[in-house]
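Now for a chain:

_____
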Amino acid sequence: MRSYLRCGRHIAFRNSAVPVAVDYDPTAGQNPPYGASINYYLKSVPSGDVKIRIEDAQGQIVRTLTGTKTVGINRVNWDLRGEQTKEVRLRTSPAYAPEVRNGNEGWRLAPDGARLSLLMPPGTYTVKLSRRRHAIHSAISSKKGSELGRH
């Protein structure tokens, strides 16, 4: 492939290589994370933690997230799930693998992280952001089959 570069009255030819194939697709995008994006702005770095509380329509706490403390615009993602359960501790060996034994404590952790959290039903939720003594709140609503919870 040749390209032309004109400099005053003279024309120069410059050889250029054809682009080489890459091992990734440069036109492919990335889907946003599953759930609700919560954006907030901090004018200055807070002295304490930034806590984001999500409450249901009755005012019960569904989930508490820890936010970032960067000056400017911050984003936290809520995966539309409630708080995680306590660790699931299994006291028996699986029926298909009797060689799997419990530890000295008499239990073993369940596979897949040993914690569960339930997907919250569609409804209206309140997001409360607090840092030190200041708090603000806003509403989020999710509907069955809405875009909020889809990939």
Q: What stands out?
A: The two ends are 42 Å apart (CA to CA). Confidence is low (pLDDT under 50) at residues 1-8. Residues 102 and 108 are 5 Å apart (CA to CA). The beta strands are 2-7, 10-15, 36-42, 50-55, 61-67, 72-78, 89-90, 108-109, 123-131, 134-142.
